[in-house]
């Protein structure tokens, strides 16, 4: 069944920049009322001013998604302001571009806290309200790394694999509540994500500038939510890699390993 977004009450995490800003604008254009959540209050207020000037109905809730009290406050304020909740978009994320052998437990835990535990626990808080929503859904922004682990992205890959797995489990469970689960699997995006990494010393080159534009991805995200798609892969590179890996997994792994060996052979 097609989902009409006009009038839907939504929470969007990671809304302050890059992909989040683009998704916020796309949701607003589709007629949704959006609670904007991120740590950067100034960036949220700037975004909110732009969206309101364009006719959007938005709420700013500065939020650290790793803190239980912030997650609860985000849901409470959204429900109080909009009168309920129909859509939770788990977009906030963090990455680390570096190899496992030289990484740390602290980086592993930080990535998992933001990318996995935070959206899972925010969903737990939101579920009582989503079950009373209008054609409700949980939307998880994952990554192609959540379908194929990539070198120099071990923590990120693990966190996104975990979120993909949770999404699949939720899809089967949440159907009894009438809550849909939409899993989005973007490839490389030119969104500024690479400017905020915990590490940047990975040997495997990442060409963020060649990735999808945030507006392009945001349009696809909104279309997937409207069409109630179960899972969508975005980006030609991601689709090609995941398809090739499906049919030729051993060759895919060999090619990836060769690329890493060459990177380290350069000194």
Explained architecture:
This protein has about 270 residues and is of the alpha/beta class. The chain has helices at about 20-30, 40-55, 70-80, 105-130, 155-175, 215-225, 235-245, 250-265, and strands at about 10-15, 35-40, 60, 85-90, 135-140, 180-185, 230-235. It has a 7-stranded parallel β-sheet with strand order 3-2-1-4-5-6-7, sandwiched between helices. α4 (about 105-130) links the parallel β4 and β5 (about 135-140). α3 packs parallel to α4 (about 105-130). The longest helix has 26 residues, at about 105-130. The protein is globular and about 60 Å long. It starts with 8 loop residues before the first strand and ends with a helix.
List the helices and strands and how they pair.
Blueprint (H helix, E strand, L loop, with lengths): L8 E5 L5 H11 L3 E6 L2 H13 L4 E5 L5 H15 L4 E4 L14 H26 L6 E5 L12 H21 L5 E7 L27 H13 L4 E4 L1 H12 L1 H17 L2
Parallel strand pairs: 1-2, 1-4, 2-3, 4-5, 5-6, 6-7
